Amino acid sequence: MTGLNVSLSFGVLAGLGLLLIVSGLVPARPTLTQALDRLRRTPSTAVEPLALRVRLLSAPLRALGLPRASTRADLAVLERPVAKHLADQAIAFLAGLFLPPVALVVLDGNGELFGAAAPLWACLLGGAGGWWLAEYTVHAEAARRRDELRHALSAVLDLVVISLAGGAGLEQALDDACADTNGWAAHRLNRAVATARVLRVPPWQTLGDLGQETGVVELEELAATMSLAGTEGARIRHSLAVRCATLRAHQAAALEAKANSATERMSMPVMLLAAAYMLFLLYPAVAGIDTF
């Protein structure tokens, strides 16, 4: 069993090395959608050169068509390069893959390197756990960023409605509202409005593109509402006020659902604690009955 694990470990390392070499010599050809998206998308931040480790680890996964579309949307929200995420995911997979043998070596009292053989299923389970953990971390952080973007959008819409009621134009109201708010989400909204001003397109078009890129449906709905309402002050002010009220209602419902979910999750530990306490109280009596 020990020799089999050693052979499998060297086989996995050799296979990964060959896959890295092949992916480096024959890079994956981007699809038509990806190529057109690269032409249309303007870089939001300065692109930093990727390290050699990141390129080597991400190349095989890119050749397999990873990551998925939902993960790409999450990375767009986080403004994180796809190659870096794939490299981190590969490192997490390898760490989980070799965690069981390393743990057995540490716990082995004989001091032999392969004194205890880790089962293959434990190694595969550890690798899958590391892969899932890296994916789950990205999804959770992206969900938090999307919530921040929704809250910032609600605050910006409140300020826009007030500015429109004071006689300001739509673009000026959007510029002032984004400038008066702080944070990462407000910066993304301000960047979208500035991009519309540079490209000489309506601001709702770039806001809709931002919503499609980040997966925030509320931005796409806002863009559709603004495009239908036009630029008339009364009509667009009423439409934005209704959209802002709807967004706040959705946020309140989401917060209430999160609170209810947290309450339900807390009920299980309380029940287990109560059961353990009752067992602690009843065990001496039951043990005393058995002695008779």
Automatic annotation (TrEMBL):
Residues 157-284 form the Type II secretion system protein GspF domain. Keywords: Cell membrane, Membrane, Transmembrane, Transmembrane helix. It is a multi-pass membrane protein. GO terms for cellular component: plasma membrane. It is found in: Cell membrane. The chain crosses the membrane at residues 6-28, 90-107, 113-134, 270-289. It comes from the Bacteria. PANTHER family: INTEGRAL MEMBRANE PROTEIN-RELATED (PTHR35007), PILUS ASSEMBLY PROTEIN (PTHR35007:SF1). This is Type II secretion system protein GspF domain-containing protein. It comes from Virgisporangium aliadipatigenens.
